[in-house]
Amino acid sequence: MRQSKLFTRTRKESPADEVSKNAELLIRGGFVHKEMAGVYSYLPLGLRVLRKIENIIREEMDKIGGQEVLMSSFQPKDNWEKTGRWSAMDDLYKVSDSSSREIALGPTHEEIVVPILKNYASSHKDFPVAIYQIQNKFRMELRAKSGMLRGREFIMKDMYSFHTSKEDFENFYEKMKGVYKTIFKRVGIGHITYLCFASGGTFSEYSHEFQTVTSAGEDTIYVDEASGSALNKEVLNDEVLNQLNLTKEKLAEHKAIEVGNIFDLKTKYSAPFDLSYTDEKGEKSTVLMGCYGIGLGRLLGTVVEALADDKGIIWPESIAPFAIHLLALGDDEVVLGEANKIYENLLKAGVEVLFDDREEVSAGEKFSDADLLGMPWRAVVSARSLKDNGIELKKRTEEKGKIVSLDELLKLLAPNH
Ligand code: ATP
Ligand code: MG
């Protein structure tokens, strides 16, 4: 994409109404646009990142047998009364229409997915099933000061699994731990993300969170570096430490943000809707459920928080909006001609490239934009680089670059082409 055609612009000043680093950098780079506290629109650069995260998650959900759906955001009040959450859930948005009918604006989808499945499944042969979606959620969050980390409207991947035995559920739950690890590794934060034990305080009522260590985190976790085990501060008691075989003195305290979690729901939502199955003997039992969430916007914001440096964003290759940022410096016709040729060649080889072809923008501005926008590679074409017969190539994370030829650049970025 030619940067001269991109309708968004970078800006030098930080937005006055944002305190979080992720929102500041994403807004300055033109990745997102703030509509109100906790509500952001995705712009072309931001959407490219979001789509890549989405595709990684979708691939991993499909691999484990998930069936993708897209459920409605408007949800019937009746369903929420059945589970007791119409009045119990503080952060539920309730909207009413002209006939004073009240509707819930979905913060999660147990109340929708369970009745859907009940339409189709009733025999033990219909299970197990795993259903997921990637969709906007609405929650009346009190504190929405953390940019993409805590939205009032945000995008979540939510999966719900349905089982006829505890053993089958536990099997799937264990597999999901591995799937989640793979996702966070692929997104580029595997090295700072911990599987973290969490619960209401007792070992029987547990869940697991995936916590990414960053100073912007709202949670405090304790990590046992030797084993990689971690637990949430809220559950730090002797019973839990014993069960996990951990010693309090050996744990390191970190601030962290929950990027995903997995829950054992038992029959909490299947029972109110009487989602049940008949076994081989014709006996009826209630279906067991698990649920598995990942916040996509929060994940995107977490990558920014955790990996950025003082010059700007650093995108991992797997989710960068473009693989490379190509800069043409100066208004020399020869330089512009060469840069155009390189751009066309990269496109032909299938490389995703952002081409800073803007005229009347200084070299200094182009360099600082490249740092702010954070593509993994930066390639500079200038009178100087052409004197050396090449392109000055540099990694975003490194200080020094080197001169390469177009052929070498293509080999590096499109090795199979
Ligand atoms: P938190 O404790 O941070 O409020 P939660 O326990 O309410 O999270 P879930 O309801 O389990 O979260 O949602 C699943 C995932 O969705 C979370 O792990 C997180 O990644 C994401 N998520 C939850 N709330 C938000 C939000 N307000 N903005 C962005 N992402 C969110
Ligand atoms: Mg919450």
UniProtKB/TrEMBL annotation:
Coiled coil: none
Pfam families xref list: HGTP_anticodon, tRNA-synt_2b
Signal peptide: none
Name of the protein described by the UniProt record: Proline--tRNA ligase
Taxonomy, superkingdom: Bacteria
Gene3D superfamilies listed in its UniProt record: Anticodon-binding domain (3.40.50.800), Bira Bifunctional Protein, Domain 2 (3.30.930.10)
Record-linked InterPro entries: aa-tRNA-synt_IIb, aa-tRNA-synth_II, aa-tRNA-synth_II/BPL/LPL, Anticodon-bd, Anticodon-bd_dom_sf, Pro-tRNA-ligase_IIa, Pro-tRNA_synthetase, ProRS_anticodon_short
One of the GO BP terms on file: prolyl-tRNA aminoacylation
Main enzyme class: ligase
Assigned EC number: 6.1.1.15
Keywords for the protein's UniProt record, in alphabetical order: Aminoacyl-tRNA synthetase, ATP-binding, Ligase, Nucleotide-binding, Protein biosynthesis
Any Gene Ontology CC annotation: cytoplasm
Gene Ontology terms, MF aspect: ATP binding; proline-tRNA ligase activity
CDD domains xref list: ProRS_anticodon_short (cd00861)
Domain Aminoacyl-transfer RNA synthetases class-II family profile span(s) in chain numbering: 38-316
